[in-house]
Design brief:
alpha/beta; Rossmann fold; five-stranded parallel beta sheet; globular
């Protein structure tokens, strides 16, 4: 029995040493994003924002003295691939899972991540995502239930439109936005003059714009992905549509402006995040990002950057690296930019994982986002 006892002691010591190494080694994060396919603009901005934040934090000693390691996987902008990549990522037991950016991919991956008891910080904006009782899911930007009421109020109060054509992409993201905005329009007595469904990746919008012209609305609400937003803006200009063009972040983002050129001028939208915001910390982020990657980031770059600083602030609040306590700590947490500059603006996370902070109403003027109004936190 003596050799067996000695072996058991050695095995226990080895196991304890391994556990110690894991608890004192790097903090491992996994990211699943749209690095190719129709959402490549979204995913690569998100990835670059993550990498920039990780580089900054590691250069200053990491989180609680531990460096961050992040692995990136490509969802190919496909929900089925995203699910497979998330399952693979969970096998490595990451501290937090990052992404995806597309709401449809978040919808099919969130149950897997929740079952593993891991917090998921994602970029999806569909209203339903944080309304299903998943305590492990958190946003990096406003959900549709927060942003659409602001858009509808602007269209009613400032544009004074009585009829609106609604153009939306037929996926989880687009359907969610369409449902929320049309409900808000109903509350103001605004008529939906045309309800136009389009497809993700659609290249030709000539027929859709013809329908808009035939409806002759007072305004056009556009809720598409970035590349499709640029295409429809070009077609609207080509066909001479003069009604105000209004949307959300995906209509007036930096990538849309670059792709649409002059056709983007005059487009207006509510944005939760913009690198043109009159906020000094956001200006500093834009400069750092542009210097590293040689292009101006869109809101997805900011979201990826914020996701890492959310992890840093929450972990430091706990005083330990504890994946099981992470979600409970982040719920109800307010992170102030004065305490953690990487968060860029004061932010609060509610019990659903939704985010509350300042927002902005912008207009594209001569190829640049111009902030027209700064909207305060809701609470």
């Amino acid at each position: 029995m003596k050799p067996f006892g000695l072996a058991a002691i050695l095995f226990a010591a080895l196991a304890a040493g391994t556990a110690f190494a894991q608890s004192s080694g790097p903090i491992k994060l996994a990211d699943v994003a749209e690095l190719s396919g129709g959402g490549a603009t979204v995913g690569n901005n998100w990835k670059n924002g993550i990498d920039l934040a990780v580089e900054e934090i590691n250069a200053k000693g990491g989180i609680l003295g531990r460096k961050i390691e992040v692995t990136h996987a490509d969802s190919q902008s496909n929900p089925g691939v995203a699910r497979a990549q998330v399952q693979k990522a969970l096998d490595s037991e990451p501290y937090v899972l990052l992404g995806p950016g597309y709401s449809g991919s978040v919808k099919v991956t969130a149950p897997l991540v929740a079952e593993a008891g891991i917090t998921q910080i994602m970029g999806g904006e569909a209203a339903e995502l944080t309304q299903a009782g998943n305590k492990f899911l958190f946003r990096t930007s406003f959900g549709q239930q927060s942003s659409m009421p602001k858009v509808a109020k602007y269209i009613n109060d400032e544009v004074k439109a009585k009829s609106v054509a609604v153009v939306w992409v037929n996926n989880d993201f687009g359907r969610g936005g369409r449902d929320v905005i049309t409900k808000e329009f109903g509350g103001y007595g605004i008529k939906v003059a045309a309800d136009i469904s389009t497809e993700a990746g659609q290249a030709d919008f000539a027929a859709d714009v013809s329908k808009i012209k035939a409806a002759n609305p007072d305004a056009v609400f556009i809720y598409l992905n970035e590349e499709e937003s640029a295409r429809i803006l070009k077609e609207l200009k080509r066909q001479g549509v003069t009604a105000p063009l209004i949307g959300e972040t995906t209509l007036v983002g930096q990538k849309v402006i670059e792709l649409a050129g002059d056709a983007a001028n005059g487009a207006r939208g509510h944005v939760g995040l913009t690198t043109d915001a009159p906020v000094e910390l956001i200006k500093q982020f834009r400069d750092k990002f542009s210097k590293k990657y040689n292009y101006v980031p869109d809101h997805n770059g900011i979201k990826g950057y914020l996701a890492i600083y959310m992890i840093k602030a929450t972990t430091e609040k706990m005083g330990k690296v504890d994946p099981k306590a992470f979600a409970d700590t982040l719920h109800g947490l307010t992170i102030k930019a004065a305490d953690e500059p990487g968060i860029l603006m004061d932010v609060t996370f509610d019990q659903n994982g939704d985010i509350d902070r300042q927002g902005f109403l912008v207009e594209v003027v001569e190829g640049k986002q111009v902030v027209k109004q700064v909207l305060p936190k809701l609470h």
